[in-house]
Design brief:
The chain is an alpha+beta fold. Helix content is 49%, strand content 20%. The protein has two domains: 202 residues, no CATH class; 115 residues, Roll (Nuclear Transport Factor 2, Chain: A).
Length: 345
């Protein structure tokens, strides 16, 4: 645990002052192409989290929208699709004047939507954030894959869903590992591509891939329903969310008095107030052993790559608070691995 703490402390402290800095574009034209792509993808995430049906109608070409409707069909409810977009973040692919590729990955589903957008432009379809009147590229094709199929993992249709449903405590290590391997695969496929082009993915038409997505979507729906149907837990998770949003150290230290909890709280409370204010409940993991433990998951709606986990109910000394950035998942996975090796000695 000491090794994990040292690594996490260094990583998390660095994130407090740096959240989403973009690399400078090579020239003005390239910057314009990248802005077009970012607007398209961030709009899809934002509006998909509110109304996926209308977001697809507005941002997809007709052929892409027809393909989307055929894929989702009766297998996914609009509630589930909203949940996917709410918890997804963007993996940046190649962008040029000819188009752009992006991956929208939701680690809590372990599913990735890879979009292809070309030069067809439409007026910005929503009055949000002062962007009215701008033009964005339409999405003209996509693939929607399970993370396992995209990475080439050999797993059963429900393996990842079962891990995400019963993480045996905090889900952090599981999702950080999934994200790390997904990011590496995305970079392998698209990192050196000059002309943005949606590749033929072996799992794109796989029944196994779709079954895996459906299984994970089912886990997420069940988690949401369990929370909504349990008023005590619903009130409880929102009370913890209020603590995250206010960022008062004395309250954190009272709830999470362990050394690790205090370290995490110290860096979390240094986040800008407007960032903390965007943390919302996203999941509840009921204890499977009959104990009173409860694990709550929070994501940041403005920066979905940031998440927090609160594990409560087994005594103050055992309460755990964690928060991480998926952009640093490689380093965090290494920290977990080093910790395991130390504990095995």
């Amino acid at each position: 645990m000491n090794q994990l703490k040292r690594c996490v402390t260094a990583l998390v402290a660095g994130l407090v002052c740096w959240l989403d800095a973009a690399e400078p574009a090579g020239d003005e034209a390239q910057m314009g192409y990248e802005v077009d792509a970012v607007i398209t993808e961030s709009t899809l995430l934002e509006r998909g989290a509110l109304d996926p049906e209308n977001a697809v109608k507005a941002l997809f070409t007709k052929s892409a929208a027809d393909k989307w409707n055929a894929f989702t069909g009766d297998d996914f409810s609009q509630e589930q699709l909203r949940d996917f977009f709410c918890g997804a973040f963007i993996l940046r692919g190649p962008v040029s004047e000819k188009g752009g590729i992006a991956g929208l990955y939701n680690p809590w589903w372990d599913a990735i939507l890879i979009t292809e957008s070309y030069l067809t432009k439409i007026s910005f379809p929503y009055g949000s954030g002062g962007m009215e009147g701008n033009e964005v590229r339409q999405i003209d094709d996509f693939v929607f894959l399970s993370g396992a199929s995209f990475r080439g993992d050999k797993e059963s249709d429900t393996a990842v869903a079962e891990k995400l449903a019963t993480p045996k405590g905090s889900p952090s290590e599981i999702v950080l590992d999934l994200t790390s391997r997904t990011q590496k695969q995305f970079e392998t496929m698209y990192g050196k591509m000059k002309v943005p082009l949606l590749l033929d993915h072996p799992g794109a038409k796989s029944e196994s891939s779709k079954k895996q997505i459906i299984a994970c979507a089912g886990v997420r729906l069940k988690m949401t329903q369990l929370l909504l149907n349990d008023k005590t837990r619903y009130d409880d998770i929102w009370s913890v969310a209020k603590v995250l949003r206010t960022g008062k150290r004395d309250t954190f230290d009272l709830i999470f008095p362990s050394e690790f909890g205090k370290m995490m709280a110290r860096t979390f409370c240094r986040l800008p107030k407007n960032i903390r204010a965007d943390f919302e409940p996203y999941g509840y993991y009921p204890d499977k052993t009959g104990e009173k433990a409860r694990v709550y998951l929070f994501i940041n709606t403005q920066f979905p790559r940031l998440f927090a986990v609160a594990s409560l109910g087994l005594g103050a000394d055992n309460n755990v608070f964690e928060w991480y950035d998926f952009a640093k998942c490689d380093e965090l996975v290494k920290a977990f691995e080093m910790t395991k090796k130390e504990e095995a000695k």
